[in-house]
């Protein structure tokens, strides 16, 4: 029975699911290089853990990581498939880098236009060499297996050596990271040659630095350099001032005497003894006739003036 609400009718009206290849192309088209890189690193980590947990040889780490792919069991198949898929992911990562670097090539953040071609090609070659490591296990053809792993490392070393010229204009964090990884590779090679670490530890340290640099590089594309911090103007001298306010002296309305009637030490005394100065001014300013005896009164008391003497 086919009713309007039957399961067959509902399935017929439902939209068709996209095919896996179409979905994969859509994801690759819309994803960024950073997203592809992190997904590839996660795939490598998960695949290695699965292979390590399921391997029949618990002492595999005494030799190298390729030992995990020598067994005809689930662990060996998981390891080889993980390496092949990781190489394919690195190739896709290089294609995403190409698209993003072309967008910024010739600008202030990536002045060298050739970098948009050289660097992605080297990254893709790194992924191809890594895929051959999984396609050719070490127990099937040791020579080609070793050449594949060595070629992957050499591709990355070439990227580091030409980064100073190819990546000119990019953020200075890439310059510091390239210097740090270069020193790290040399510092890892020395103890390996000296026999202090085995090949498994050497491979782990080297490929950890390789993926760290690639992921950091993908996140730095198009990043503008930091603006220099302007220093504050230098301040000289003391910022504190002490102001002493003298108390106000009450003023009085006094008669100002002439300079001839003031004593000789008046200026100095006026500055040091303001009260005495006011008294001197007050005494010198008493020039009214009410306090002076007149000439007739003086004569009446028998006094003589200089006029009478003459």
List the helices and strands and how they pair.
Layout: H1 7-13, H2 20-30, H3 33-54, H4 74-104, H5 115-135, H6 142-166, H7 172-194, H8 199-220, H9 266-272, H10 274-284, H11 295-300, H12 306-309
Helix pairs in contact: 3-4, 3-8, 4-5, 5-6, 6-7, 7-8, 9-10
What is the number of E strands?
A: 0
**SSE order:** HHHHHHHHHHHH
Q: What is the residue-mean pLDDT, rounded to a whole number?
A: 76
Rg value:
49 Å
Q: Characterize the largest beta sheet: strand count, sense, and whether it forms a barrel.
A: none
Low-confidence stretches: 254-260, 287-291, 305-310
Q: How many distinct domains?
A: 2
Please count the helical segments.
12
Please indicate the percent range of residues in DSSP E strands (runs of 2 or more).
under 5%
In percent, how helical is the residue content? Answer: 55-70%
What's the shape?
globular
End-to-end Cα distance, whole Å, is 166 Å
Structural class, from helix and strand content? mainly alpha
Oligomeric organization of the protein chains? single chain
How would you portray this structure in words?
It is a single chain. This protein is mainly alpha-helical and 310 residues long. It contains twelve helices and no strands. It is globular, with a radius of gyration of 49 Å. The protein starts with 6 loop residues before the first helix and ends with a helix.
